[in-house]
Design a protein that fits this description.
Length: 336
């Protein structure tokens, strides 16, 4: 049978007829005349090749075929109703949804704990599943298998939606006992020290680092390369928390995003310095699939993350202003 030739209104008629088992009551329920309802029943009998409702001493009684159709028709109509009705607002307090977020180690340190705190306040039954960049790929985001990616991105597919959460500058974190503090903190003294390299923010599985491949070492080393200089890297790590722990060793410097350094502001063992050379800032962004753009659950998550990022910005402002004021802002894009 060609479904395009079937009047789907007849399924509505059948659903009501099987519930009411009375032509007059069914007509009143649908707001149509009794003759129109009777005509509908006749067309239904023709469509299914069955009387569907027959008159007995107990009134109109459903046939065996009608009883088979009853749950099928109800389910079909329920699915159609869900499809055409506007999606209801996300009820955070009652939801038990799982949100999957990919976050770089930097974003996970600086943003995710606060995001989780807000989620637990507003949506106590919601679960947060935080993945690393190595766990996912761009197709995972594009196809909606991942709710959100939070990172600094070299490039994003044009189909993605995105929002900048903040612009980030760099800071130098080192032990309060580091001998370098006995002298003015200049480019020369910076380069005389030993350094901690920390990165791995892109998608995909990471590989070992070649210390000679400056183009793949990132912002800090590229900035030095433009001046014809190079730092001595003693340890490579992919985790900002590890870099901050290693910075407590007396002769190492970690050059990392200033908000990561800000997390250590109460650590008496560490000192934060403005880098003695220009390092281009970058933008932390959240990106998501166009498939999720109009999803109420996802809209709630995006608002929450953006609100939390704004709160971090306010708290960070005084600490961060020293970096923004003292770092010469280069005439170049903040995203590579």
């Amino acid at each position: 049978m060609d479904i395009s030739r079937v009047d789907l209104n007849l399924l509505v008629y059948l659903d009501v007829l099987l519930r009411e088992k009375n032509v007059t009551k069914a007509a009143n329920h649908l707001g149509i005349t009794q003759p129109a309802m009777s005509n509908g029943l006749r067309r239904l009998r023709d469509l299914f090749g069955d009387p569907l409702l027959v008159r007995t001493s107990e009134g109109m009684t459903a046939t065996e075929r009608a009883l088979e159709l009853k749950p099928l028709v109800r389910n079909v109509l329920a699915d159609i109703e869900r499809a055409v009705q506007a999606k209801s607002e996300f009820d955070a307090a009652q939801s038990n949804r799982v949100f999957r977020i990919m976050a770089s180690d930097y974003a996970e340190s600086c943003l995710i704990p606060r995001v989780l705190r807000r989620i637990r306040q507003e949506a106590p039954n919601v679960t947060l599943d935080v993945l690393t960049p190595s766990d996912v790929s761009f197709p995972d985001v594009e196809q909606g298998r991942l709710d959100m990616a939070i990172n600094r991105f070299d490039k994003l597919p044009q189909s993605f939606h995105q929002k900048t959460l903040w612009t980030e500058y760099f800071a130098c974190l080192m032990s309060a006992q580091n001998p370098i503090l006995r002298e003015p903190f200049t480019l020369d003294t910076y380069l005389d020290a030993s350094h901690i390299w920390v990165s791995k923010t892109g998608f995909g599985v990471g590989v070992g680092v070649n210390p000679q491949d400056v183009q793949r070492l990132g912002w800090v080393d590229e900035a030095l390369s433009l001046m014809g200089r190079k730092r001595r890297i003693s340890v490579f790590t992919r985790h900002y928390q590890v870099a901050m722990l290693l910075a407590e060793q007396h002769d190492l410097i970690a050059t990392l995003p200033s908000r990561a350094a800000w997390l250590q502001r109460e650590n008496a063992n560490l000192v934060v310095k403005v880098p003695p050379f220009t390092i281009p800032p970058f933008e932390l962004k959240m990106a998501w699939s166009p498939l999720l753009q109009h999803n109420p659950d996802h809209q709630w998550l995006r608002r929450l993350i953006a609100d939390v990022a704004a709160e971090v910005d306010v708290e960070f402002a005084d600490f961060g202003r020293s970096f923004e004021d003292q770092v010469v802002k280069p005439n170049m894009q903040s995203e590579r």
